[in-house]
TrEMBL record:
Region feature (Disordered): 344-374
The species this protein was found in: Anisodus acutangulus
Acidic residues bias: start-end ranges: 364-374
InterPro entries noted in UniProt: Cupin_8 (IPR041667), JmjC_dom (IPR003347), RmlC-like_jellyroll (IPR014710)
Domain annotation JmjC: ranges: 134-327
Name listed for the protein in its UniProt record: JmjC domain-containing protein
Family as reported in the entry's similarity comment: Belongs to the JARID1 histone demethylase family.
Entry-linked PROSITE patterns: JMJC (PS51184)
Superkingdom, taxonomy of origin: Eukaryota
Amino acid sequence: MEEQEEPIQNLWQEVRDLTLGTTTQINHLSSPPTPLHFFREYISPNKPCLISNAINHWPATTLWHSTRYLFNTLSSSTVSLHVTPNGHADALTPHPNSPSTPTLCFASAEVQHIPFQDAFTRVLNSGLSSNCVGYLQQQNDCLRTEYGALSKDCDSDLAWASEAFGCLPEAVNLWIGNEMSETSFHKDHYENVYAVVCGEKHFLLLPPTDVHRMYIHDYPAANYRYSQDTGEFSLKLEEPVRNVPWCSVNPYPSPELKEKEMAKFPLYFNGPRPFEVTVRAGEILYLPSMWFHHVKQSPDSRGLTIAVNYWYDMRFDIKYAYFNFLQSLPHSMLCSPASFGKLGGNSEDESRKGNSAASANDNILDDSDAAAEK
């Protein structure tokens, strides 16, 4: 068993040694890359980066700080407001039919279609006078549909990214929320270019090779229902039953639950630390396809965070095949208690990993020289 565990656990560190770096920071570019540089250094190796000075020319970077401008521009628009009791949509929560046991389900927000001004006001007031948290986050190309009147304030695509990906974005989405909205760990089958216009977004990132550390399990799907009369939420399981594979790890457990969570998910808490990225207003995060990400946000002076993201189709190529194969390996092979103490590594392990990384780097240099000759 230990012989089976070791190669997969070594993979987590070797990916960092060879490609991603061994700190919790990602590369920060001071200006947009050329398409060729972006493709070679980030898309091809499936590596995230933070980019500054890429959206300074957008009218949105000044206009969207004005609530009056947003109200006037979207005065006749009906939008989709996602409401939850705590700001955690598409997240795990206690099963409604077994409140006394630790069974969980996958809960989605109630979606209300209401005038923009009403929806915007409810986002601003979220959590202040009720247990209802609103988030404008319809992920269906909403900037070019529901919020079409605002789309002129942003680029329809990012030229350097579109050329590198070889296509235009499939969807462009708008996100408006406050500090209570939080997104649990998950991954997307899209190349994500994420621009923050107002406020800040705080990402935790893990590469696809760390899939076993996410403890992905199937959970029954449920939906929140909000009563305008009582101001209370109920949670109803979908019928027929539909199971959703979802990450089980909460990276920010409460102090009273932290020890229990660390014991329950040792591969996450004892393994390499996730990459930490704060995306400030005016900055862009390139989030490669299949990367696991958890998102929190800090608002601007109004109490809002506003962002735009471009979803580009991912290539279902050999990397996707590798990741799928890795995910198919039984999770149980990594769950031997004897292995947990080794996740942080020791001097002998680090020496061996260093030799392995050096050997792999030699091979990469050889391959690069061969490619250059061709």
